[in-house]
Design goal:
Among the domains are: 118 residues, CBS-domain (Roll), CATH 3.10.580; 98 residues, 2-Layer Sandwich (Beta-Lactamase), CATH 3.30.450. The chain is built from 13 helices and 10 strands. The protein has a 6-stranded antiparallel beta sheet. Strand 9 and strand 10 form a beta hairpin. The longest helix is centred in the middle third of the chain and has 22 residues.
């Protein structure tokens, strides 16, 4: 499943598992990475690829020596508490290492960075800025939580989704699209093939339904019908989200329980988010259990409840 600028591949983001699951990795798993990859440091980056700090092997091992304390810490607190800001001078002793394994604040491996990328990131983050404040770390964590919420919402839409930017480059696709693509072509999703096919007007038939103002398309390569919903940011369209289907779309098709007519993607996602929260509150009966199920903090849940005007007593 795939969260573009100049480089298509670098902007294609895959979610093989829940990107916000603090219980997936433990502090000891971080130690294992040091030994498995034979590295003395592990850069920690945000989901947007920003350098948060650097973990040193000796600091992690020292922290784990206090077993009782280490066992009570969530992985994100453990990592952000130890991730240090390092200057270029600090990193130069590690210059013999060509590539560094990079991880998220939840201990998940996010790929590798060549040494020059790490050096440049340390320099760009050293333009007179002081030591990272608690609010900076909180902001980074909140961004990742929001990204997980977006993923959670999109995965709850029971239709294959494929998002592209204004240039037609892949931004995201969900598991339903991956399943239907694999069923049709018997192979993993080929981003370049999908992008090329969607851009080609000769391969996309414009269709409409009697009695409906909605328009949809049929892609002859993918053998899929789809609707196009604008991706909005700052009041401007930055791309499109394709709602796909194997069968011909019918008038009034949409998401069960929601009226999508005239709504932007942002408005639709907010409606979905509210629906998911309300359903979770009804199932759990308490905000604590609801926050736990949605894998967000109680504070984040309370903020959402206030934002959407949810009456928890009534719901």
């Amino acid at each position: 499943m795939a969260e573009k600028g100049k480089n298509t591949e670098s902007d294609t983001r895959e979610f093989d598992q829940n990107p916000y699951t603090p219980d997936t990795c433990k502090p000891e798993d971080v130690v294992r990475l040091f030994y498995t990859h034979n590295v003395p440091i592990l850069p920690v980056i945000s989901r947007r690829g920003t350098l948060i700090g650097v973990l040193r092997k000796e600091d992690v091992i020292s922290e784990l020596s206090d077993i009782e304390r280490a066992e009570t810490l969530k992985i994100d607190r453990f990592i952000t508490g130890l991730a240090k800001k390092m200057t270029l001078d600090d990193l130069l002793p590690y210059g013999t290492i060509r590539e560094f394994i990079v991880i998220s604040i939840f201990g998940e491996v996010e790929g590798t960075w060549p040494r020059m990328k790490l050096f440049n990131a340390s320099e760009s983050g050293n333009t007179g800025a002081e030591e990272r404040s608690e609010s900076d770390l909180s902001s980074q964590k909140e961004e990742q939580i929001l990204e997980w919420m977006i993923y959670l919402i999109l995965e709850h839409i029971p239709r294959p989704l494929y998002a592209v930017n204004q240039k037609g480059g892949t931004i995201f696709y969900n598991s339903h699209f991956e399943d239907i693509y694999t069923e049709i072509f018997r192979k993993e999703v080929d981003h370049s093939m999908v992008e090329k096919s969607i851009k080609d007007s000769d391969r996309n038939e414009l269709l409409s339904e009697n009695g409906s103002e909605d328009l949809y398309f049929y892609n002859t390569d993918l053998r899929l019908y789809y609707e196009k919903v604008p991706l909005m940011s700052g009041g401007k369209s930055v791309g499109f989200l394709l709602f796909c289907n194997r069968e011909k779309a019918s008038a009034g098709s949409g998401i069960q329980g929601l009226d999508m007519r005239g709504k932007s993607l942002g408005e639709t996602m907010e409606s979905l988010e509210r629906q998911i929260i309300v359903s979770a509150i009804k199932r759990n009966g308490s905000l604590g259990k609801t926050a736990q199920e949605l894998k967000i903090s109680r504070k984040t849940l309370s903020t959402r409840i206030q934002k959407y005007g949810i009456d928890t007593g009534k719901e």
